[in-house]
Design a protein that fits this description.
Layout (H helix, E strand, L loop, with lengths): L1 E2 L6 E2 H10 L5 H8 L5 H8 L10 E4 L9 H18 L1 H6 L1 E5 L5 H14 L4 E4 L5 H10 L4 E5 L8 E8 L7 H12 L12 H6 L3 E4 L1 H12 L5 H7 L5 E4 L6 H11 L4 E3 L1 H4 L16 H13 L4 E5 L6 E6 L5 E3 L2 H18 L7 E6 L5 H8 L3 E5 L3 H14 L3 E7 L3 E3 L9 H17 L4 H12 L1 E10 L2 H17 L4 H5 L3 E6 L4 E3 L5 E4 L8 E5 L4 E6 L5 E10 L2 H22 L1
Parallel strand pairs: 4-5, 4-6, 5-8, 9-10, 9-11, 14-15, 14-16
Antiparallel strand pairs: 1-2, 3-7, 6-7, 11-12, 12-13, 16-17, 18-24, 19-20, 19-22, 20-21, 22-23, 23-24
């Protein structure tokens, strides 16, 4: 039986036997495979396809098989990257590749395998001496003048996942065009088991494998601290803000604690049970700071003292979640959109007050992020640009601005709790975000306000924008097929969307075909963003609904954003649209 689902076509029984019989497969992997020899469904899941390499690199469950993260799939991806770099010329190979890794199971082993495969192809590898956050990898690529970067992480996914993300010389994640060219090279590597790797001792001896450490950390921290909008305020008043921080067993603790202390925040405590890195994230169901559940231990710690704010970073420290003590003493969590609009108002208003505003100031957000940020930016005379979902597209805009010089990047953010200031990192950055959010919380506290009160003031001024996301998990090869079928169903039924949503649809945008339609399915024009499997339904009064497959997990995601003059009206409309859409989705899946 042959299957093609996103990755390459694989005859799963044949490939399974190849792995079992190969003398190059290690005995632990072979035993894992032999234990499933009578389970054809499991073999199909492991070998029905090759783990797909996209603009997010590889990400998947760990285990044996072509459709899993393991030393062999990582080695094959590294070989494809090496082939691509060598095709570009010796000057690219000589500049090398920087490699970082997080606290997950096998992250170090995957990082080392990638480095030694690159070394076997005469490409220098800079490997960090210990776990590091993803944004530091982005910084290091630029700082060292490297051709590319790799970070081994699965971000906020559960502990059974891992990933292999590739960055290019600008410090941003690879673009779609480069991902496709690297994929072509990966697909030429037919034998997973036959990828060559240099011996570590030889790589070190020949200066092909270079260890990097705290010298990069220090340079990065200096740049992060330079982003403070009011360093003097923090120096004088920083001790008045009580902060509880949790790295959720990930990479953030050392750098976040150091940055906050260096800035002048002296009342910072951590969640001791979550402070040390751990491959299994034992105190949380999922290490995702977007979820209140992941912050509960930090909130309990904050309640026991007089702390004002809780901040958590995910395992690779590129995104944050926060909870803030209200006037009545309760801790309230904020969505990614709410943090984004608070940062937009704070950064832009303070830049104006401090005389830092510049011609061409621009914020950049994704298409599934609240439109409230656009309204706030416009009130400050600042432009807003939209990109496709994924911070890599925001990074592309920063790189574009650096060449055109017609716009000045101020702030980038996405609804999934990713934020960035400055241009020395080209991906979302939880360390930068933690610093600026704490500065913002201190600023409002000195005015006698909580962040909840500041947000409510923004709602009263700009209207109530209420958002939500629903994720439908569809595992395995069958799940991939179902996701494709669902997306095709909605493309085939554009003229029914008024009925399905129970709301008037003004415009339908199909980013896969880069066209938009009226609510009867009549083509109206072309879209100028890159191709992506996304359907966007623009409703009246600035509201919208969006459907897209997740780029990193086996999910289809439904995004809702409802705008109204009153909170109750917005919440009622959101409930109605969500109920109708979820009911329809349940019939499809």
């Amino acid at each position: 039986m042959e299957t093609r689902l996103g990755g390459e076509k694989v005859e799963h029984i044949y490939e399974y036997k190849n792995w079992v019989n190969s003398p190059l497969i290690d005995r632990h992997t072979k035993q894992e495979l032999l234990d499933m020899e009578n389970n054809e469904e499991e073999i199909r899941e492991r070998f029905c396809t090759c783990l797909e390499f996209g603009t997010a690199g590889l990400r998947g469950l760990m285990g044996a098989g072509t459709n899993r993260m393991n030393l062999y799939t990582v080695g094959r991806a590294a070989q494809g990257l090496a082939n691509h770099i060598n095709l570009l010329g010796r000057q690219y190979a000589d500049r090398g590749v920087v490699i970082a890794y997080d606290s997950r199971r096998l992250s170090y082993e995957f990082a080392l395998r990638a480095a030694l495969v690159l070394n076997a192809n005469r490409i220098k590898a800079y490997l960090f001496d210990n776990i590091r956050p993803t944004p530091l990898l982005s910084f290091a690529v630029r700082e060292l003048g490297a051709t590319a970067g790799i970070v081994v992480t699965a971000s906020h996914n559960p502990s059974q996942y891992n990933g292999f993300k590739v960055y290019w010389e600008d410090g941003g994640q690879i673009t779609q065009d480069r991902a496709e060219r690297i994929t072509l090279e990966i697909n030429k590597v037919c034998d997973y088991c036959g990828v060559s790797a240099m011996e570590r001792e030889k790589a070190v001896e020949h200066k092909q494998l270079i260890t990097i450490g705290e010298e990069i950390d220090q340079k990065y921290m200096e740049r992060v601290l330079s982003l403070c909008l009011d360093r003097e305020m923090i120096r004088i008043e920083g001790g008045k803000l009580g902060i509880v921080y949790t790295p959720l067993h990930g990479t953030g603790y050392r750098l976040v604690a150091s940055v906050l202390a260096a800035a002048g925040f002296t009342k910072v405590s951590t969640v001791k049970e979550q402070e040390k890195p751990h491959m299994d994230f034992p105190t949380v169901r999922s290490p995702n700071p977007e979820d209140r559940e992941a912050l509960e231990m930090a909130i309990m710690t904050a309640r026991q003292g007089d702390s004002d704010i809780v901040v958590g970073t995910d395992p690779d420290a590129d995104r944050i979640g926060i909870a803030v003590r209200n006037a009545d003493g309760r801790f309230e969590t904020f969505t990614g959109n709410q943090i984004g609009v608070l940062l937009t108002e704070y950064v832009l208003s303070r830049r104006n007050t401090l005389g830092l505003s510049a011609r061409g100031d621009t914020i950049v957000k994704t298409i599934v992020t609240s439109e409230m940020g656009r309204a706030i930016a416009a009130s400050h005379g600042v432009d807003t640009l939209d990109t496709l979902t994924g911070f890599k597209y925001i990074g592309e805009k920063i790189e574009e601005f650096s060449h055109t010089r017609d716009k000045n990047f101020v702030l980038g953010y996405e609804e999934s709790n990713g934020y960035l200031m400055g241009d020395f990192v080209r991906d979302k950055d939880g360390i930068i975000a933690t610093l600026i959010v704490c500065e913002m919380a201190l600023y409002y506290k000195l005015k006698g306000m909580t962040l909840s009160q500041a947000l409510e003031d923004l709602y009263k001024k700009y209207g109530y924008y209420i958002e939500d996301v629903v994720s439908v998990r569809l595992e395995g090869c069958e799940g991939l097929e179902k996701i494709q079928q669902v997306m095709q169903y909605f493309r085939d039924n554009m003229d029914r969307m008024n009925e399905i949503l129970g709301q008037q649809v003004e415009e339908i945008r199909d980013y896969l075909h880069r066209v938009y339609y009226d609510n009867n399915g009549n083509r109206m024009g072309s879209l100028d963003l890159p191709k992506s499997d996304v359907l966007y339904y623009k409703l009246k009064n600035g509201s919208w609904v969006c459907i897209r497959p997740s780029g990193t997990e086996p999910k289809i995601k439904l995004y809702f954003s409802i705008a109204a003059g009153k909170r109750e009206e917005a919440e009622n409309r959101l409930r109605s649209i969500k109920a109708k859409m979820e009911s329809h989705m349940n019939m499809l899946v």
